[in-house]
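Ticket #4471: structure output looks truncated?

Reporter: J.K.
Steps to reproduce: submitted the chain below (850 residues) through the standard prediction queue, then opened the result file.
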Amino acid sequence: MAAVLAMQQALQSHSWPGGGEPLRVRMGVHTGEAEQTAAGPVGLDVHRAARIAAVAHGGQVLLSETAAALVRDFLPDAATLIDLGVHRLKDLGRPERIFQLTAPGLPSEFPALRSLGNPTLLNNLPAELSAFVGRASELKEILPLVGSSRLVTLTGPGGSGKTRLGLQAAAELLDETGDGVWLVELAAVTDAGSVPSAIAGILGVAAQPGRPMLDTLVNALAPQRLLIVLDNCEHLVDACARAADAILRRCPRVNLLATSREPLGIGGETIYRVPPMLLPAEDDSGAAPAELSDAMALFVDRARQQGVRLSVDAGSSPLIASICRRLDGMPLAIELAAARLRSLSLADLRDRLDQRFRLLIGGSRAALARQQTLLATVAWSYSLLDQAEQQLLRWLAVFPESFNLSGAEAVCGIAGLDRLDVVDLLGSLVNKSLVGTEQGPENLRYRLLETIRQFAGERLIEAGDAGAISAAHCEHFVSVAEQAGARLTGPDQGRWFTLLDADRANLWRAAQYAAGVPDGTSRVLRLSAALRRYWVSRGLGEAIAELVWPALERPEARSDQRLFVDAAITVMDATRGPDVQTALEFGERIVAEARQVGEPGLLIEALAVLCGRYYFAGAPEQGAAFGAEAVALARRTGDDVLLASSIMGYLLCLDITDSRAAGQLYPEAIACTQRSGDRLTAHVLHNNAGVRALRAGDIVAARAHLVQAEQAGADIGERSHVVPVNMGWVLRQEHDPQAARAAFQDGLRLSRRTGDRYGLAYCGLGLACVTGDLGDWHRAAALHGAAQAFFEGLGGPWQDPEDRYRADSIAAVRRRLGDAGFDEAYAHGLTLSFDDAIALALSEARQVAA
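Returned output as attached by the reporter:
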């Protein structure tokens, strides 16, 4: 039935331009396995279930044998089906018997079908045994290149799908003119001098005694019009370059399409870097993608080819997406992973990808040995490198994600490699598709695919260089941190936050390394102190505190008292653990030590942070005294940055203890940020002013401050749950529950991504309250339980005004459900797993009529 629907769609879209030549379109309809999707008529994926493929010019409707059988009963009396025989169409994995539909108004005379078996279409392209999946945008880019350039080279790392993409492009270029499309497979050729002979053998050009084979070949090709596909050139790149250059110069009607892990490097070459397959978009919710990406579609297709009945639903789709992302969208890795589903579940497969080289084996026995396992494929590329290139590739494995040229020079420019060596070798690795490039915030950045990085990392350990390279990496990024940290307070701070974001993974790795080695104490403390603003603003404060806290206990940590206190303030600022009393005692001890250091700025920061700790501990009266001292000291310095940040900490407690006095301090602090250009502090101050206005019931002022907080945050790339959750409360007070729900869910996704437990709790609470507002009482009760589960273990009470909103909402839900009904649903929410609680919070609430 899907084939009929697709054919009807095709015929309905057939139109004729008035007064001119009829529009001539030949269409083919063939069947495949139907699958449930969100798209297509009656829930079927028409692309798979009844694929419509343009196979030549004309206005012909073509059907496969199965499709013909399906539509016979639906044809009008005047329509008939003509058997055109068995054809291997260029986009199918197997031959098909094709029928032509004839009916009044449809043309009946057409050129021969463009099937690979058509004797008028000269070619030696192989029959593909599996479907060609995805890559539509790549084909759309490649085909015009082949038309406009005499030599197009598809480059990419091993396993990126260069050969399959090249063959599909070649099939698309088949026509009835010229001398054909010819594939020359070079993977098994080991002698560079045999390249001309390999090409000649495919084209039937005989050797002439006493004459170089290349001369004989180009003389034979000179009058011909054809396309030659040179597949797998990388191990013979010099010989392929010489042959290609001779053909281009002496055979003006011959086009070349090459696949290679590096360009041929000759004049007239157009390079097309084959990207990984399209990956599913990142979704912080973990929900199933709305549709399958190319990489996911390939995984599903190859799993089914292995006999695995893989259903794609809300449960399996996130797992498939995660697997494809971790495999970098590389077709070979995806196909090998899909084959593993014969013996592993999706979750088991995902959890074992750190051991991908042992796991992803068992490719086709008919393939070359180096193409049968992921390890063999990568090892083959590695073996083609010279010693210096291998060394640099190993060393680059120390970068967990992307890096810039200065980072590569600083980290790898040791042990005999100077900076110019690194530049040249890095360029060579880029050319050989082992290092990728991407545009960074200010310059080009480099990245190893995860598969390449794992392989290189194993070689790094084998070579015994891992310790020295990790130490060099750490030292460089400590320097980066200290350079940037000094610039995170002024008007240019947005730029420096962006630069740090690009190196976040490197900074974190440096901190982990320093915290884990005996001589790393000073470096981990320097990283903690230099990037205090960065760690906290990016939701990494608790994570860095966990790394730094043990280092503070080491005897050598106090060798530099100022550095010790500076790093400890970061820990104090970030720690909101359940042991409130220990955190407060630690804070008071650090304030005491800051007094001994005798540096006003350090003492002011310590006092302001301790004030905030008392606020979150539910003791604002005690905290206010520390805050007042911090502000008084800051006023004496005349430093707007220090004054604004100290007022900011003081206001947390003063808003509770003396609201009128607090109201007079906000304008002063905000004016400080305007003079200094400190957008981070402005962001926090406007957010806190918005909360203050919420408590007072001034919704207009609350919105105005939160809008300014959002803008200041955008200026520095700050994204956390804080402003979205507070805006959610504003929207709720404005009686817009759907918009409030969207804001709370935005904050929940952000908190889930960063692991911010406070964000999970407060956003979950907001969603519980809004769900109650919508009258979905059982779900609201369960969400209140889930929010409480998130909140437990954080220490301290719910903050105002959320504590009031929570109490009012729970009372309303309890009245509707009764005590027993509420308690049952609430208990259910309390016991949900993390993933189930998130799924419940992000699911649609039902609006129930009052």
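Triage note (M.O.): checked the attachment and the full token line is present. The mean pLDDT is 82.
Status: closed, working as intended.
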